[in-house]
Amino acid sequence: MSDFDYDLFVIGAGSGGVRAARTAAATGARVAVAEDRYLGGTCVNVGCVPKKLYSYAAHFHDAFEDARGFGWSLPQAPRFDWATLRDNKVREIKRLNEIYGRLLGNAGVELIHGRARVVDAHRVEVDGRAYTAAKILVAVGGWPWVPDFPGREMAVTSNEVFDLERMPQRFLVLGGGYIAVEFASIFNGLGSESHLVYRGELFLRGFDREVREFTREQMAAKGVNLHFETNIESIEKVEGGLLVALTNGESLEVDVVLAATGRKPNLEGVGLDALDIALNPDGTVKVNDRFETTMPSILALGDVTGGPELTPVALAEAMHLVSQHFGEAPPKPMDYRNIATAVFCHPNIGTVGLSEEQARKEYDAIRVYRTDFRPMKHTLSGSEERCLMKLIVDDVSDVVVGAHMVGEEAGELIQGIAIAVKAGLTKADFDATVGIHPTAAEEFVTMRTLSRR
Predict the structure, then answer these.
(1) 3-state SS string for 147-190
(2) Among candidate residues 172, 17, 184, 161, the one with its CA nearest the CA of residue 89
(3) Which helix (H) or strand (E) holds 254?
(4) pLDDT digits (tens, 9 = 90+) for 88-121
(5) Which of 305, 253, 257, 302 shows the shortest CA–CA distance to 278?
(6) For the chain, which terminal residue's Cβ has fewer other Cβ atoms within 10 angstroms, N or C?
(7) Dist CA 194 CA 384 (whole Å)
(8) What phi, psi does 388 have (nearest 5°)?
(9) What does the alpha-carbon distance between residue 55 and residue 427 come to, in Å, rounded to a whole number?
(10) What three-state secondary structure class fits 35?
(11) Which H or E element spans position 387?
(12) Share of the chain above pLDDT 90, in %
């Protein structure tokens, strides 16, 4: 490797790229990272981190209402200031950007500012300057995609929605995935008239059907206007804002339209097309178990490879990649089974393992345990919000193969349950666990009544 400038050259300083760079440098490898936008990538700057901060802000709406049942009264009606939230978020992201810079510097990684282009198997160019490396890692993530319809340029994406100049009083989001349901909930909680438009019959495709239906009911009860089996036909600028024509014949006048219609690999200008590196049918980079492309010295990980688009997945992939290419004892290929995830809509969703529908296809017989209830907190708050919990069990082995929750802090709770599911614990193990009372979490170890097979 001494014939090259670096042992590893990373394109993209997002979660996966930074983790790979730092971990490789810790092995003694000479590492550089090129980034043309911001340190920390999508998650830190326009993804998970600001999204969770805005979700926290939106939850205060319910908290103020809930407090009354517990004897609290405010001297005046709470007032939300968009600029305060936005500007505080900007300061926090700047702080995190600086932390990422220090982490790279302290690890001995050279940071190069600019858009990198792969020239050949071992050469990269940034702003006209060439660098050589034994291995090149493409970790450029994804970029929002907006479908083609008249007026599409008037829609914003998740890249811009956090920094709107004014708080929209009327908000519409197009899409049915994580981002769409989360922002429909967030702006509803912040006080906007919130609409979600989705072409399918129900959002969150791929999640457990019962979870999706329960979430639909809870979001609608909180005031989110759901428009299924329809799409945007056009957006037109009018005096009062934006006039959105829908394919079902309806028209809605709103202030902001967020297109949350998916992301595509951020490969423009990276140079892989000129090298004839194989792509998957969806345009993501094709890699093997060692994260090698069809040109073995060029590696790729994270969202750009088409796997689960989750920050912890990119971090885990980075650790596996470094162990395989720079470690002494390469591990087994990364295991993508039973990866927990959360959707920060209101109420939250937390899930790990198989949905009921997936389990019925994979196993000859299953048992389903489920409960939905009004949490203890709301016996005094007056809120009608309910919580859903569900376990999917392989009937032959008694192993819990799926766990799902819709309710307050579902992500926090499912993270712990995920350890049990990943470890292959049985329903008998859950039943033998003494619960913590009074909590919602104890329901996961006290569900005894079989709901269905």
Answers:
(1) CCCCCHHHCECCCCHHHCCCCCCEEEEECCCHHHHHHHHHHHHH
(2) 161
(3) strand 251-254
(4) 999 999 999 999 999 999 999 999 999 999 999 9
(5) 305
(6) C
(7) 20
(8) -115, 135
(9) 33
(10) strand
(11) strand 387-394
(12) 96
**Which two tokens mark 205?**
């495709």
Catalytic center residues: 437
3-state secondary structure of 388: strand
Q: Which positions of the chain have pLDDT values less than 70?
A: 1, 329-330
The token pair that represents 314 in the structure block:
């990119």
- Rounding to the nearest 10 degrees, give the CA dihedral for residues 311, 134, 264, 150: 130
Contact 31, 108 (CB under 8 A): yes
Largest CA distance in the chain: 72
3 state SS for 184-226: HHHHHHHCCEEEEEECCCCCCCCCCHHHHHHHHHHHHHCCCEE
Give the burial string for 398-414 (b: 16+ CB within 10 Å, else e): ebbbbbbbbbbebbebb
Amino acid at 367: R
pLDDT (tens digit per residue) in 148-174:
999 999 999 999 999 999 999 999 999
Cα torsion at 222, 228, 230, 231 (round to 10°)? 60
Least Cα distance to 59 among 451, 317, 383, 325 occurs for: 383
Query: What is the model's pLDDT at position 332?
Result: 81
Pair of tokens at residue 59: 């939850």
Give CA separation, 432 vs 53, 393, 429, in Å. Answer: 37, 15, 5
Model's pTM, two decimal places?
0.95
Q: Tell me which DSSP letter residue 447 carries.
A: -
**pLDDT, position 311:** 96
Round to whole Å and give the CA distance between 369 and 387: 14
**Peptide linkage before 331 cis (omega within 30 of 0):** no
pLDDT at 132: 98
What are the structure tokens assigned to 219, written together?
């979001």
3-state secondary structure (DSSP) of residue 106: helix
> What's the rounded Cα separation, in Å, for the pair 116 and 131?
10
Q: How far apart are CA 428 and CA 138, in angstroms?
A: 45
CA gap 420, 386 in Å, rounded: 25
Quick count: other Cβ atoms within 10 Å of Cβ 152? 16
Q: Using CB atoms within 10 A of its CB, is residue 395 exposed (0-12), middle (13-18) or buried (19+)?
A: middle
Count of Cβ atoms closer than 10 Å to residue 436 Cβ:
10
Question: CA dist 17 to 34, 280, 322, 341, 427, Å?
Answer: 9, 21, 11, 21, 39
